[in-house]
Design goal:
Elements (H helix, E strand, L loop, with lengths): L1 H29 L11 H29 L9 H16 L7
Length: 102
Amino acid sequence: MARTAEVVKKFFVASIFMWILPVAIVYGFQNNMFPGISQLSPNHQTLVGGFLAVFSVNVVIAFYIYLAMKEPSDKHEPDPTFVAQAKASMNQTKSGSGEKEE
């Protein structure tokens, strides 16, 4: 259960960054908060800010994927009762495949 809480926490943090970072970048470009931005035309400010905002989302996604790949992957053993029922169901389907269903 603790691992699930950690995964949800990482997802929540990544989601927050995927919203805040691009908005902050676009806001900073529109309000000339970055040095040297005032030298660009308003059209270029919008384009550069938009591209950097999209790039920032991709960086957050890549980092989230990296963290997900780093998660420990324990071998999961299926429930023996479920496996037995599934095998019985498959055997029943195979034995009754020649008959018509109504």
